[in-house]
Write a structure and sequence with these properties.
2 copies of one chain form a homodimer. The first copy, chain A, is of the alpha/beta class. The first copy, chain A, is 43% helix and 16% strand. The first copy, chain A, contains 12 helices and 12 strands. In chain A, β6, α9 and β7 form a beta-alpha-beta unit. In chain A, α1 crosses α2, α5 crosses α12 and α8 packs parallel to α9. The longest helix of chain A is centred in the first third of the chain and has 16 residues. The N and C termini of chain A lie far apart (62 Å). The interface between A and B is large, with 40 and 40 residues.
DNA sequence: CTGTTAGCGCCTTCAG
DNA sequence: CTGAAGGCGCTAACAG
């Protein structure tokens, strides 16, 4: 497994290394037609494959960006990643994806390794625990974009859902169907994860706008494995909610599990709306009404913005917060 | 954004580069306690972060492997990837994941890019279209492992499901429930994709073993978007099957779509078994009986084997085919 | 115990 | 139109 280098090609083709280099980079401005062919032939013969590591070292650019998602289990993450990859493909950039697993420690490790690997920029779904690190990246002028979550007091471009609008879409739909006892269930709210906080506040505002009183026992933020108990408590209380808004896909799955276990009829006994699309939303019976995020646009926007920064086309314009609008997809569960 | 290098650290700490290098690599056999502290301090001060690109160039090792999956939309792929990543984490290796999208052209592009990036080894779910490329990798002694699919006449270690056993588990379960008109539906079979071919042959063998005649009209291999029509044809025929075995998760989803659309009752009107676990198999009603692959073991095995080759602990032993056993998870759909 | 030196494979002036 | 030389940041002998 001895690698063939540019020098080998040069020797075999009786030219110098720099000529080969020029050929590879398609800078054959003044190169002899015959020389070109000779080089091409020997490249094929020797099965030469350029060494990007060496190139990156020299050029101080890896043509690679890093993406750190907070939790890859959300379909939201996977869809945004797809969009990012598409944009990068088109621009001949590569993507390294890391999953922080909702763990700031892991996130830190990944940020450091991506820096060590000299990626040209990063898109991160911040876990909320590494503000100092983000800050030092920013101070170095390192291209960086946040997605899904916002970090306060840092002028870094962020792509966010209009979470309050998302909650409002759901609540208003519940209300239009005549429901008044409406609950919201999200995953844990420690570390002030943006979407969860905002969705709850949007829910409250929407209720108030409809003149429905807010009941604290209808608002729960729990770790995934506590949701089962939380639901039991909520649904078997004296005045159980008639409708639940699930804060994200995993939460909705937990609710569906509970519903299946307790043979609760949807939507007759309990109406359901989730935020985030689900692979089986259409297949499930009843099919599931959900609030959909424009995941593709979000990923695309994040990637294009980042690449602009990487290519120094956009240096100013720091700290923009881009809010994208959700849409309600009405199906049978409410 | 000027990077701080090992030389900067050396200057500020009044030592030579090599001393710093040794410190970083924890080779402080004979290093002065005081020197160590001085280096550590200046590293912190300057926020020095090592440049892995330079290190990789020197060491001819990137501590990174590449994974190319045929199609990332299968849960199978994502689960195997998770397991691979776990093993690599433990060994301080990084993983670059690429999705060939069932397209040999894309696969080729990715193989070339991973080589250019000097990854230390590759795990690929071969699309079946780049035999010459695999061969040249092999000839160079490039560490390589195949997963899910087998490539003939190439002595490369492969991790495969015992696909015939998987089909047999399903067929035997159908038979034990009294079904005789049993169909199998897989995605397209051009390019002889191993699991599809083997699952069909396993299906045939199992039927024969039970003394049930094989009917060609019960065997369909179609592109995903043709499944709808194929099902219509099959289920609205004179003697429609009473049971269908879905060759993979995406096929099963298509069937469920059809079933929902036509209000077909499961399992009363049609019994269903799928190969591959599904996120909602438990939640769906009726819950779905499936044949489960040991995805975690497969990924783990692939990664450990590859790392052994990378670390030259395993040089012989080429061309082993590891067959892992599936298990039947009985739920309500049959 | 620490410093000097010589590359890793590639790109980029700058001469020829 | 082509070649020679220097250097990207780091490591690994080999001297001191």
């Amino acid at each position: 497994m001895k690698r063939v280098t540019i020098a080998d090609v040069a020797n075999h083709a009786n030219v110098s290394k720099s000529t080969v280099s020029q050929y590879i980079n398609k800078r054959y401005d003044y190169m002899g037609e015959e020389t070109k062919e000779r080089i091409e032939k020997t490249i094929k013969e020797l099965e030469y494959s350029p060494n990007m590591v060496a190139k990156s070292l020299k050029q101080k650019s890896t043509l690679t960006i890093g993406v750190i998602v907070a939790n890859i289990l959300h379909v939201f993450s996977t869809q945004v990643i797809r969009a990012i990859e598409d944009v990068c493909q088109e621009n001949d950039f590569h993507v390294i994806v890391c999953n922080a697993d909702d763990n700031p420690e892991k996130e830190k490790k990944y940020i450091e390794m991506l820096r060590a690997k000299q990626v040209d920029g990063m898109i991160v779904f911040p876990t909320g625990g590494n503000k100092d690190l983000y800050e030092s990246l920013f101070n170095e002028g390192y291209p960086l974009i946040f997605v899904d979550r916002f970090v306060e007091n840092l002028p870094i471009d962020s792509i966010l859902l209009d979470n309050e609008a998302a909650a409002k879409l759901a609540v208003d739909h519940f209300v239009s169907k005549g429901y008044e006892r409406i609950a919201i269930l999200t995953t844990s709210i420690i570390r002030n994860i943006t979407p969860r906080v905002e969705r709850i506040s949007g829910y409250k505002k929407a209720l108030q706008a409809s003149g429905i009183p807010i009941r604290e026992e209808y608002i729960k933020s729990l770790d995934l494995n506590e949701i089962h108990n939380g639901l039991k408590e909520m649904l078997f209380a004296e005045h159980p909610p008639q409708a639940i808004l699930a804060g994200n896909d995993l939460t909705l799955m937990q609710i569906l599990n509970f519903v299946q276990e307790h043979k609760i009829q949807i939507p007759k006994e309990l109406a359901l709306i989730g935020i985030d699309e689900l692979s089986f939303a259409n297949i499930y019976s009843p099919s599931l009404t959900i609030v959909s995020q424009p995941t593709f646009e979000m990923g695309e926007m994040a990637a294009s913005l980042l690449l602009k920064k990487v290519k120094k086309e956009d240096t100013k314009n720091e700290g923009c917060i881009h809010r994208l609008q959700p849409t309600l997809v009405i199906r049978e569960s409410c």
